[in-house]
C-alpha cells in the first residue's frame, strides 16, 4: 500500500513544486522587497493580486488534473494492478487540495521572511509534518490508507492557518479583485518560467523513476522513496543552505562587474560543500544499514527489505556530491542572469534518466558480472528484487552527468574558471575520506562485536558513537593533510559559540 501512496503523492507534489516553489525562490521575494522599499501599500497590493491569481491558476490546474487522475495514474504507474490504480486515483484526488493550500501558505511564508518573521515560518513545516503523523496514528485506523492523504491535507491546513494572523498583523488586506495585466505579475511570470522548467524536469525524473519502479516487484517504489528520503536531508542541510546564502553575494558581485570576486566566492563555497558532503557520504555508506534500521525502525522491515533499502541509500551516496554542486552551479547561472542553461540541462536529464534506469534494470534482472559486483560491494547476497537498485543508480549517474555538463557550460560562460582550482582539493578530500572510512569501518566492527545490534537503542548508540568518531577522525586527517576548510570550520564554530570570549 505504501507503493500506492508514494505514487499518488507524486502528481500533487509536482504541481506544488513547479508552480509555487519556482515563483517563490526566484520572483516573489525580490519583487515584493523592491515594492516594499518604495511603498508598503504597493507591495501588499502586488502580493494580494499575485495570491489571487496563483490560487485561481492552481485551482484550475488541480481541477483539470482531478478529472484526468485515472489517466495520469495509468501513465506513471503502468505496472499497478487495477485495484491499486483505483486506490491511487482516490488518494491523488484527495491530495490535489494540498498544492492549493500549500501554494497560498508558501507565498505567505515568503512575505513573512521579508519581514524577518522566521519563527513562524520555521514552525509551520513542523505542523505540516505533525499533520502527516496524525494521519498515520489517528486517521489510518479509521479510514485505512486514505488516512495518509487526509493527514497531508490536515498538515497543509495547519501550515496555512498558523501564518495567516501574522500576515494580517503586518498590514495585509485581502482583495477580491485581480488583474492578469499587472506589470509586476507579468514580471513574476517571466522570472518564474525558466526556474519552473528546471523544477518540472526534476519532478518528471521522480515520476519516471516511480513509473519504472511500478513495473518491478511489489515494494520497489517504497524502498526507493525511503532511501531517497534518508539521503536528501544531507543535501537540505549542506548544499541548499550554502547555495541559498551565497546567491545574493553572487548577484551583487556580478552586478558590480567583479568576476574575480564572484569566482573566488564560487571556489570557496564549492569547497565548503564538498568538504562536508564527501566524507558524510562515505560515513553514511558504511553505516547505511544502521541508519535505515534506526530511522525507519528495526522491526519495520524484514532483513531482505532492510538490506535493499540500505543498498539503495548507499548507491545514492555515489551521486550526492554531484547533486550538491548542481544547486550551487544553478545559483551561479542565475546570478549571471542565465536561467536557460540550468533548465536545458535539466531537460536533457529527462532523456538520459529512463535510458539509464531501464539499462540497469535489464542487467540486474540476471546473474552477470555487473549484478554480482553490486551484490559483493553492497553485501546484499541472498536477496531478491535486485532490479530496484537500478533506480538510485540511474539517478546518481544522471546527477554526475548533469554536473559535468553544467561545469562545461560554466567554463564557456566564465572563461576565467579553472578546474584545477577544485580538482586538487577534491582529490585531497577523497583521500582523507578513504582513510576515515577505513578506520571508522574497523571501529564499527569492534562496536558491533561487543554491543551487537539487536535492540534499537543499542543500534542508535552504536550509530551515534561510530558516526561521531568518524567525523572527528576526518577532521584530524584533514588537518594533517592541510585542508584549509578545517580551519575555516573551526573559526566559524568559535565565532558562533563565542568559545574564546567565554575563556577570557
TrEMBL record:
<dbReference type="GO" id="GO:0005886">
    <property type="term" value="C:plasma membrane"/>
</dbReference>
<keyword id="KW-0812">Transmembrane</keyword>
<feature type="transmembrane region" description="Helical">
    <location>
        <begin position="422"/>
        <end position="443"/>
    </location>
</feature>
<keyword id="KW-1133">Transmembrane helix</keyword>
<feature type="transmembrane region" description="Helical">
    <location>
        <begin position="149"/>
        <end position="168"/>
    </location>
</feature>
<feature type="transmembrane region" description="Helical">
    <location>
        <begin position="230"/>
        <end position="254"/>
    </location>
</feature>
<feature type="transmembrane region" description="Helical">
    <location>
        <begin position="384"/>
        <end position="410"/>
    </location>
</feature>
<feature type="transmembrane region" description="Helical">
    <location>
        <begin position="14"/>
        <end position="32"/>
    </location>
</feature>
<feature type="transmembrane region" description="Helical">
    <location>
        <begin position="126"/>
        <end position="143"/>
    </location>
</feature>
<feature type="transmembrane region" description="Helical">
    <location>
        <begin position="266"/>
        <end position="288"/>
    </location>
</feature>
<dbReference type="Pfam" id="PF03023">
    <property type="entry name" value="MurJ"/>
</dbReference>
<protein>
    <recommendedName>
        <fullName>Murein biosynthesis integral membrane protein MurJ</fullName>
    </recommendedName>
</protein>
<feature type="transmembrane region" description="Helical">
    <location>
        <begin position="341"/>
        <end position="364"/>
    </location>
</feature>
<feature type="transmembrane region" description="Helical">
    <location>
        <begin position="96"/>
        <end position="114"/>
    </location>
</feature>
<dbReference type="GO" id="GO:0009252">
    <property type="term" value="P:peptidoglycan biosynthetic process"/>
</dbReference>
<dbReference type="InterPro" id="IPR051050">
    <property type="entry name" value="Lipid_II_flippase_MurJ/MviN"/>
</dbReference>
<keyword id="KW-0472">Membrane</keyword>
<feature type="transmembrane region" description="Helical">
    <location>
        <begin position="204"/>
        <end position="224"/>
    </location>
</feature>
<keyword id="KW-0573">Peptidoglycan synthesis</keyword>
<dbReference type="GO" id="GO:0034204">
    <property type="term" value="P:lipid translocation"/>
</dbReference>
<keyword id="KW-1003">Cell membrane</keyword>
<feature type="transmembrane region" description="Helical">
    <location>
        <begin position="455"/>
        <end position="480"/>
    </location>
</feature>
<feature type="transmembrane region" description="Helical">
    <location>
        <begin position="308"/>
        <end position="329"/>
    </location>
</feature>
<keyword id="KW-0133">Cell shape</keyword>
<feature type="transmembrane region" description="Helical">
    <location>
        <begin position="53"/>
        <end position="76"/>
    </location>
</feature>
<dbReference type="GO" id="GO:0008360">
    <property type="term" value="P:regulation of cell shape"/>
</dbReference>
<dbReference type="InterPro" id="IPR004268">
    <property type="entry name" value="MurJ"/>
</dbReference>
<dbReference type="GO" id="GO:0015648">
    <property type="term" value="F:lipid-linked peptidoglycan transporter activity"/>
</dbReference>
Amino acid at each position: 500500500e505504501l507503493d500506492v501512496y508514494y505514487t499518488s503523492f507524486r502528481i500533487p507534489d509536482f504541481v506544488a513544486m513547479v508552480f509555487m516553489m519556482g515563483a517563490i525562490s526566484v520572483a516573489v521575494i525580490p519583487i515584493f522587497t523592491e515594492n516594499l522599499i518604495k511603498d508598503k501599500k504597493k507591495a501588499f497590493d502586488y502580493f494580494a493580486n499575485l495570491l489571487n491569481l496563483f490560487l485561481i491558476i492552481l485551482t484550475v490546474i488541480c481541477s483539470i488534473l482531478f478529472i484526468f487522475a485515472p489517466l495520469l495514474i495509468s501513465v506513471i504507474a503502468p505496472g499497478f494492478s487495477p485495484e491499486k490504480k483505483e486506490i491511487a486515483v482516490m488518494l491523488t484526488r484527495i491530495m490535489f487540495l494540498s498544492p492549493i493550500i500549500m501554494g497560498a501558505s508558501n507565498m505567505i511564508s515568503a512575505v513573512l521572511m521579508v519581514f524577518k518573521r522566521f519563527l513562524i515560518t520555521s514552525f509551520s513545516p513542523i505542523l505540516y509534518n505533525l499533520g502527516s503523523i496524525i494521519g498515520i496514528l489517528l486517521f489510518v485506523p479509521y479510514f485505512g490508507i486514505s488516512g495518509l492523504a487526509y493527514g497531508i491535507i490536515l498538515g497543509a491546513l495547519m501550515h496555512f492557518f498558523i501564518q495567516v494572523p501574522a500576515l494580517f498583523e503586518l498590514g495585509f488586506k485581502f482583495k477580491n479583485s485581480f488583474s492578469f495585466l499587472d506589470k509586476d505579475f507579468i514580471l513574476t511570470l517571466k522570472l518564474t518560467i525558466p526556474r519552473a522548467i528546471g523544477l518540472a524536469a526534476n519532478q518528471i525524473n521522480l515520476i519516471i523513476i516511480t513509473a519504472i519502479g511500478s513495473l518491478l516487484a511489489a515494494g520497489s517504489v517504497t524502498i526507493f522513496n525511503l532511501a531517497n528520503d534518508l539521503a536528501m536531508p544531507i543535501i537540505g542541510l549542506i548544499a541548499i543552505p550554502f547555495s541559498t546564502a551565497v546567491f545574493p553575494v553572487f548577484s551583487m558581485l556580478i552586478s558590480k562587474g567583479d568576476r574575480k570576486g564572484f569566482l573566488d566566492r564560487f571556489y570557496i563555497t564549492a569547497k565548503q560543500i564538498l568538504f562536508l558532503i564527501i566524507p558524510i557520504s562515505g560515513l553514511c555508506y558504511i553505516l547505511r544499514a544502521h541508519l535505515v534500521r534506526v530511522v525507519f525502525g528495526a522491526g519495520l522491515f524484514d532483513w531482505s527489505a532492510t538490506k535493499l533499502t540500505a543498498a539503495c541509500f548507499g548507491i545514492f551516496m555515489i551521486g550526492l556530491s554531484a547533486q550538491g554542486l548542481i544547486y550551487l552551479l544553478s545559483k551561479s547561472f542565475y546570478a549571471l542572469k542565465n536561467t536557460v542553461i540550468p533548465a536545458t540541462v535539466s531537460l536533457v536529464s529527462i532523456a538520459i534518466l529512463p535510458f539509464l534506469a531501464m539499462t540497469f534494470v535489464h542487467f540486474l534482472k540476471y546473474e552477470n558480472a555487473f549484478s554480482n559486483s553490486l551484490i559483493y560491494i553492497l553485501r546484499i547476497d541472498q536477496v531478491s528484487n535486485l532490479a530496484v537498485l537500478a533506480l538510485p543508480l540511474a539517478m546518481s549517474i544522471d546527477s554526475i552527468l548533469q554536473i559535468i555538463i553544467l561545469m562545461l557550460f560554466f567554463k564557456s560562460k566564465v572563461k576565467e574558471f579553472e578546474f584545477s582550482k577544485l580538482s586538487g582539493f577534491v582529490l585531497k578530500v577523497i583521500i582523507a575520506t578513504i582513510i576515515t572510512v577505513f578506520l571508522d569501518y574497523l571501529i564499527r566492527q569492534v562496536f558491533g562485536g561487543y554491543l551487537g545490534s539487536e535492540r534499537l537503542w543499542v543500534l542508535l548508540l552504536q550509530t551515534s558513537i561510530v558516526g561521531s568518531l568518524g567525523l572527528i577522525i576526518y577532521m584530524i586527517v584533514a588537518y594533517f593533510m592541510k585542508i584549509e576548510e578545517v580551519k575555516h570550520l573551526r573559526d566559524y564554530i568559535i565565532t558562533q559559540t563565542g568559545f574564546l570570549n567565554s575563556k577570557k
